[in-house]
Design a protein that fits this description.
Elements: H1 2-20, E1 24-33, H2 34-39, H3 43-49, H4 54-63, E2 68-72, E3 77-81, E4 94-101, E5 107-115
Parallel strand pairs: 3-5
Antiparallel strand pairs: 1-2, 1-4, 2-3, 4-5
The structure holds copper (II) ion.
Length: 117
Amino acid sequence: MNKLFAILVLSLSFVGLSFGAVKEQTFTGEIMDSQCANMGSHDVMMKQEGAKDAKQCTTGCVKMGGRYVLFNATEKTIYQLDDQNKPAQFAGEKVTVKGKLGKDNKTIHVSSIQSGS
Ligand SMILES: [Cu+2]
C-alpha cells in the first residue's frame, strides 16, 4: 500500500514537473503578417499592395489570408500567435509579447501584448 502510494506521488510529481517546465516567457519583435515575415520584410508586398507603412501592409496581408505573427528581425525568428485578436491593434508595431511557448517551439500562447520592446 505504501509502495503504491509512493509510486502515485512520484508519478504525480513528474506530471507536475513537465507542466511546470513551460514557463511564461517574454518575446520581443514586431507584429507582422505571415507572408511578409516569411520574406523577412514588407518591401515586396508594400510595392505590390501600395501600402504606405508596415501597419497597412500587415493589416492588408492578414485580410488576404495571412496570420499575425511575431517577427524578430535580429534573430530572424517567426513566432506564430495563437491569439489573432490581440495582435490586430499592434499591426506593424514593435511589441513585447508575454506567453508560453508551445511544444513546437514556434507558437506563443499569448497572455499579453504591450507596445514597445
Ligand atoms: Cu505585408
